[in-house]
Amino acid sequence: MPAVIPANEAARQQELTSFQILDTPPDSSFDNLVALAAEICEAPISTVTFIDSDRQWFKAKLGVESDQTPREQSFCAHAILKPNEFMVVPDAAKDPRFEDNPLVTGEPNIRFYAAAPLVSKGLGLGALCIIDRQPRTLKPFQESALRTLASQAAQLMELHRQRAMAENHRRFLHTVMETLAEGVIVRDSQRRLLAHNTMASVLLGTELKDMVGQTFSMLHFKPVQPDGFPIPTEDLPSYKALATGEPQRNVIFGITRPNKTEIWIESNASVLNDPVHGECAVISFRDVSDRKALEKQIQRDGTTDPLTGLPNRAAFLNYVGKAIAAASRYKHPMSVCVASLDDLKAMVAKHGPHAADSALKHFGTILRATLRHEDSVARLAGDDFVALFPYVDANRALTSLDRFKSTLENAQLRLHDGKEITLTGACGLSDWKPGMSAEDLLDSALKACGEAKAKGRNSVAVAAG
Questions:
Q1: Which NCBIfam families does the record cross-reference, listed alphabetically (predicted)?
Q2: pLDDT tens digits, residue range 308-357?
Q3: Structural domains of the chain ordered from first start
Q4: Which of 231, 335, 375, 435 is most deeply buried (CB count within 10 A of its CB)?
């Protein structure tokens, strides 16, 4: 008769699944156990068996051809019902549980069966068993040996689980790295390349997989500083991170790839203490050539606001157009904020035009300083400034604006006559939506800024829908 399904079957199946051992290839460590069990117990058949939902599956087997049989025919399905007890069936043909079992009435003609359950967290997952075609018993030392071998099998199971978990983690990290739009490189303190993602090869224009284990350095790519001079070795992010133990952020430098093309990259580096390789540098970098080209274009075309030194409206709209193209292609969010200095006309009337100029420069400087490195800031006209938040929607951009408003309020402006004043501003945010042009997005943010001004000083509004 088939074994009953234990009351803890769901938990048992979950624990068995956690080992990730079902349907795995043969393993010599398990094979050696069944061979030793058969030899010690003088039996022609031995298996390491796991009880799945509808079958018994053999991780290791001796004297058995098939890899699995139905659960309802399984002797081991009975063994797991009492996971703390050794199971012996002296003569299956005379045992009411097995006398009509196809494995008894037909091949392999089981008569004798003995098993030590394989247990984890008190749950019977399977058994290490020996089988004979003749009725018999076990000697005490044979039973003891079978229990010991089952304990070793349980240890092998746990080792298999740990290895499977490590491999799952490795695959997870590999998938994450391959999903990134940034290049990622890991090298040790001896400059040996340990790991990389595909984007790193793409950005550097060289096949890095051929260099794993070999010496690797950004010096191979003739790095230069923004002023065009070679970057000192000690200033490269990976070298500096390893030397200081401190993360290096947003370091921009130019490189020359093997095909002689030049690109600008923005790089970060952090130190990772690996148990195998010791101190390693994890380096990430992305292509910022378009931004550098835009900066040069701004300088070349005179698209800079002369008072604040920030890009002007034309430069900003040009950059937003490119950002919209990227957002459309890669389906990432983007938002724009128009920030307007409060009470500029009243300030001019009270303190004069010089005070207004100082206030506008102060306002723009704090806006630029308090936003993220990847955010862009420009002056539109009059008392209006604008900021672009790539990869961030309006709700998340509010965090940056809170930081800006707080800094602005706490940083008093000293005027030419020695007086100190506190500045505030109204902010209007708008999300970019597919189909919106740069002008559409700016108009939406301007409208939201108008709504913020209507609320009163130092207010924020977000464009509807």
A1: GGDEF, sensory_box
A2: 989 999 889 988 999 999 899 989 999 999 999 999 988 888 888 889 99
A3: 9-167 (3.30.450.40), 180-287 (3.30.450.20), 291-462 (3.30.70.270)
A4: 335
